[in-house]
Amino acid sequence: MKTFYIETWGCQMNDLDSQRLSGSLKLRGLRRVDSELEADMILLNTCSIRDKSEQKVYSHLGRLRELKEERSELKIGVCGCVAQQEGERIIQRAPWVDFVMGPGNVGHLDAVLDREHAVAVDFPEDRRYDSLAIDRTSPTKAWVTIMEGCNKNCTFCIVPMTRGREVSRTFDEILDEVRVAVASGRVEIELLGQTVNAYRCHKSGRDFGALLGAVAEVEGVARLRFMTSHPAEVNDSMIAAMRDHENISRYLHLPVQSGSSRILRRMKRLYTRERYLEIVDRIREAIPEIHFSTDVIVGFPGETEEDFQETLSLIEQIRYGSLFAFKYSPRPGTPSLRIGEPVDDAVASERLNRLFELHEQHKRERLESYRGRVLPVLVEGPSKHDPAMFAGRTDDNWVVNFSGNPDTTLGSMLGVRIESAQHHTLRGEAV
């Protein structure tokens, strides 16, 4: 039996794409292996969101050249966002690559494999999506794509070029996939999209809030999550669905990127600092226990110390439980390249460190606040650090490592008394 190996970089969308690729290859009779050395086919599913992502891919391809020279029958494919960005250049620079395929063609893998040196970087009108062919890796959780692409055109972002324009799946198709996932034992559903709350069914006109409510009401869905939300797409329908369904996680990833309205305008984020804070207040008024996380870019072209201070003050005001921050990295073809030079790297690094120091205080306070409380935790499997313990997540997305009955069923919801807070996680005992 022929074998394949998939190396995945990037976000949950890429992880799900790899599950789709794996399912398609298994239907062709291939077997997945855990090492490139064992594989007859190697797929690199790539991400282009950060700087130097192309170099990382070409460096990896350089190492694979030796394998190809040793085994001429080995097939090598580059998939994902770097594939979409680089296209034919990958074949030109690494002619030992057999095919290049962007995210829009994941559902067309069979056709790509049947072509010699295929470069499939278009966005077919038929975004074929076979939900029954997904090789889901988690026994308790299923990712479900509800839409692909993005229409926002933030000046720093390459996603509209690598993932294309927004295309929403139909309402009923999504619900059918959720029901199949639940029937297979998955009790946690996570809805995915580049701008997930921009979803709108092109047949019925129903929006993201309507979809959230409908998925939450599918029998057997113990917990429902979604990402990534855009602040400009938050509306009353979405907030009401979260408020009215207890199985929708009290965790919301709401990227702010900057606390300065001037920088937000240069980023083309479609909201101001004041508007973002108003959105947060509306959500907290409806769902007081909500846990926010966010993304921040430091050192965007034109960012002054005053702009950065506004970012720090916004973080101090909201006190995010989780925060993902990066120095600005220019991406090819994005409008920010024409805005001006990035902030000096040393200055940007110093600002990033200050931001992390502030957030670390907030995160520590939040983690410590759980000590002694009993929290509902969905059991995901054995702990990575101690196989004798279990690991799961709280409703607001904190990882908990805990001791409990060895016969505990994966996917069950347990009350766990929190005994201590680690650096990023909680530790406790099932009660």
Question: Can you describe this structure?
Answer:
The chain is an alpha/beta fold. The protein folds into three domains: 3-120, Methylthiotransferase, N-terminal domain (Rossmann fold), CATH 3.40.50; 137-368, pyruvate-formate lyase- activating enzyme (Alpha-Beta Horseshoe); 374-430, Beta Barrel (OB fold (Dihydrolipoamide Acetyltransferase, E2P)). Helix content is 34%, strand content 22%. The chain is globular, with a radius of gyration of 22 Å.
Task: Offer a concise description of the structure.
By secondary structure, the chain is an alpha/beta fold. It has 13 helices and 19 strands.
Strand ordering within the main sheet: 2-1-3-4-5-6
The overall strand count is 19
Average pLDDT confidence is 95
- Oligomeric assembly: single chain
Which bin fits the share of residues in helices?
A: 25-40%
Give the second-level CATH assignment, the architecture of the largest domain: Alpha-Beta Horseshoe
Look up the CATH topology of the largest domain.
pyruvate-formate lyase- activating enzyme
Sheet with most strands: 6 strands, parallel
Low-pLDDT residue intervals, each spanning 5 or more residues: none
- Gyration radius, to the nearest Å? 22 Å
Q: Number of helix segments? A: 13
Strand residue percentage: 15-25%
**Rough shape?**
globular
Give the helix/strand class: alpha/beta
* CATH class (first level) name of the largest domain: Alpha Beta
What is the CATH superfamily classification of the largest domain? Answer: tm_1862 like domain
What is the terminal separation in angstroms?
47 Å
Whole-number total of structural domains: 3
